[in-house]
Records
---
Amino acid sequence: MRHLAALFAISVLLALAGCGPKHVPSTPPASGDGGVRFDPKTRPYTVLGKTYYPLQSASGYDEIGLASWYGADFHGRKTANGQTYNMYGVSAAHKTLPLGTRVRVTNLENDRTVVLTINDRGPFVNERILDLSYGAARKLGTVERGVAKVRVTSLTTEVVPTRLKDTPGRLYHVRVGAFAVRDNALRVHRQLLASGYSGANITVVDRDGQMLHIVQAGSFKTRDQAERVMEALKREFPTCYIIS
């Protein structure tokens, strides 16, 4: 895997600087798959010691969060699905949506929308859920601000088949959210406990100088167990996902 990029600097002359998300510029290798073949659209990948398991279907996906954008530092390089990144085109990176997913992105601050394809992985910074190409950011009016609140709605109904194999000793964690405000994390933690998730926990991490409170619904020995929990939580926590 290529190294993650450093935070982008603002380039006044070119006006091409993004808001500095850490990013995966090329297809990451599956980790510990024991020779199992995964569909390339949903293949697990590892970043900063954490393995992410993309959703097997984007059907019904609807998410609100922060979107950043990336530009010149990756222009002409390979994206996670093997395409050549064109910063002037319309595309985006997402941590867990299947590669190739078509989504509608709405800038909730000015109601502009754009339809694009997820062709890369990222961003891995704070609470950002989407990393827009420069071209997509221009259409949404987010270039100058760098980060904006958006809604991501899947237009894809395809169910992607895959084969999974559990690795002895590996635990699968269902992550519900990361909160800068501890009281918000405590509220979600209490909610999970009240719903019967006795293994729910909170861990604190320092991410780029910001203390985040990570809430997990629990840890499980098999991927199937973790997926059942994730699916049960999707209605209330649509952005929850599995890591190991």
Note: The CA atoms of residues 66 and 128 lie 5 Å apart.
---
Amino acid sequence: MTRHLLSVLAATASLVSAELVEKPVMYEQGGVKLEGFHVYDDAITGPRPGILVIHQWTGLSDHEKEQSRKLAKLGYNVLAADVYGQGIRPKPPEAGKEAGKYKADRQLLRERLYAGLETLKKDERTDSSRLGAIGYCFGGLGVLELARAEVDLKGVVSFHGSLDAAEGLAAKKGTVKAKVLVLHGADDPHAPAAQVEALKKEMADAGADCRVVLYPGAVHSFTQKSAGNDPSKGSAYNEAADTGSWKEMTEFFAGLFKK
């Protein structure tokens, strides 16, 4: 009985002492200073799977940071990347112009994401053989670009992302190394059914392992409470889709990263 009590107390003490460590991380790409957000659980020792988080159109925000914390609590080493550059966090409509620069130049987008991924891989806590990426909206496009670019990831997850491939940069047969999970609003006007079907065909033609989950009644930005609750605007929070998509993602990575 005493031994059992001591074991319980030791486990409790360990949980109490466990703490998320979070900090900004500076890195560069093409001479541009970038500021990411790194978070991990210091109760875990040794290398663990790493996940890159890619932001939506307004740049690295509180939303991506909070999602990163949730991932760290699950045991991952997490870096929320910065595509735009240190201090560049535009509001609409300027955000559309900034995102548009990278949508129009997919190679530049890829280079920015490579830089973030390399920063994550170099961290001593990262098991570089077990890497994944998730992205929201603009970031959803980002993870698909990583898959299309043959990056050696176990899996990528797009949440209500843009899905279109740039001319000449669609996935090629046999080149997609990552498993692809697309979590999407069935009524998303920004990436409608035609885009979904085009992505499915692209990935099928490439021989990729790709699964698309559609959430009825959900539109764009369904994971973001700041989007409000009016789906007629095209962007709105949807609790069922938010909860369901997070569960899909956690199960996806748990399966990919198990030893």
Note: The first helix runs from residue 2 to 17.
---
Amino acid sequence: MNSYLRRKILPPTVTVLLVLAIWIGVTASGAIPDYVIPSPRAVLDSLITTWPTRLGSATWLTLGETLAGIVLGVAVAVIVVIVSGYLPVIGSAMTPLLIASQAIPIIVIGPLLTIALGYGMAAKVIVVALLCFFPVALNLLAGIRAVDARLIDTLRSLHASRHELFWRVRLPFAAPRGFAGLRVSVTFAPVAAVFAEYTGSTNGIGYLMLQAIPRMQTDFVFAQVVVLTIMSAALLAAVTGLERWVCPWNKPSESDGTS
């Protein structure tokens, strides 16, 4: 356990404390105006005072959009991969489209969806879903194709059906790769929701940022950034825990440090 703490807990903790110390030192010295970089105390005060009135409701709305988008994006990705598993030609046909879909930046898609769907949650959910769909689908497809052909031939010689090969071999083999794509997706999903809110919304963290920036409420903007950071970290931790539960066979080769 002591080894685990040294390798996993201590380095990020030291890094966060070091950054916080530098932040406090820079703001205390007066070298940078408060409206450019506020002090940690000012950010904390803004977070506490605005949470009951504005920031709390905005955070829950943005979180709801993010979670709904993640679920939608992953669900569509899994469906596409399942269909591709039974019909490989579909997977080959979909790959160029998946890559091409990422050539259109979110900042362009957001306004178009807002025009089509209005200022509600739908446009934001679709933006997040598009962000999550590509990494998960592409990684799952790559994992399914990367299964050792000799293993497949051996199982076929034992009269394994296509159904059994997909659900018992190909999909379990590809699942860790899919989770790798999902970990990347959920880290940026809250930011995607905020960008979508920039294009048109009546609440949410993105809406509050648009209100705060012209008014030079830098401490309030930093408070929202802190909330987004915590949200991304919590989503990443949740996905990591889900992966360990869904894919218990995918254990790291190095010692876990419990000895």
Note: The chain has nine helices and no strands.
---
Amino acid sequence: MSTPEPASGWTSVRLIAAREITTRIKTRSFIITNIIMLLVAIVGCIVAAQFVDDGPSTESVATQGVDAATTAAITTTGDRLGVSLSFSESSDARAAAADGSVTAAIVAAPDGGYTVYSDDDLDADVETAIKSGVSSAVVDGALTKAGVDPTALQRDATVTVERTAQIADAEGERLALSYVGSVLMFMMIFGGGMAVAVGVVEEKVSRIVEILLATVKPGHLLWGKIIGIGAVQMASTLLFAAAALITARLTGLLTVPDVAAAMLGVSVIWLLLGFVFFAALYAATGAMVSRQEEINSASWPLMILAMGALYAGIFGIGSPDSSVIRILAWIPPFSSTVVPMRVATGYATWMEVVGSCILMAAVTGVAVWVAGRIYRRSVLMTGSRVPWKTALGAK
């Protein structure tokens, strides 16, 4: 009787990955957590959209005895302040302000000057527009009587402010996208990495790993676990992001879908690289300990590294083109959050994106090789924590 041929490497990896996926998506905690996250994403975008300023509203102002030159000057001043004003002549402007039918009322005094009425505290910008406009009209009138052209003076006194750097459109939305992307990156890296470490320890403590390694190679078991858990984490993260992006687009919260699409595409690449980088090292950490209680103390260097990557992406939002951030964009694993942030804010070049991606892939490959070496040497060792020297096979 012939013995069956051993399964190929890919078949072993695929079967182990399928086992991880099936086990995790059927758990009640996984289902409940993802439903809550989807609801938070959708409801959060809907609520946030209610507080979005759709632009300056038009404020109604009743006038009484105010000449056209003064209202024109007030209108011009309001436009400069971002305040849109609509004027209407009234025989009793004060009463119109008192009953709330207009935002404010301007009444010209018989002996000169103006009085502004409002039924509540007047908006500071509206008040400034009225006062500055009246002052401008008075000055223009005095200059005209003196034979001086006010238009020529205004033209000579015009000051134009220009930026030396081109700022991307919808900067606020881009910054929000980069912030959310960094948080999602950290959630997948930390959540997925810890899931890999816990899974390795569970199999080690229950001695299931000894049975599995009797039929598959350690490397195949490691890759199957990383791919399976990674697929579940990636699907959950992308589902959460897609729900948020679609809701934000439908509610008008997001007006730069091209930027969102570009960032989503770039983020997927870094999500994969960042996850594999950290998941492999978390798996190695899990293989070195013999109890779940030891995982946190053993993995604190990875936690600090992951937090550093998260903070680099978040704190870099305030100065995305600073020298420090440009350098971190080329240093793995910080590039996993910094590069998507620079893409969202419009500062990253394609050379930077491609070059840092290749560098991150190379470093991830090294991390996987080191993790595989540690995993093979440590996963069957029980009892006390495996020393780094023993795990790495150093003499």
Note: Residues 171-205 form the longest helix (35 residues).
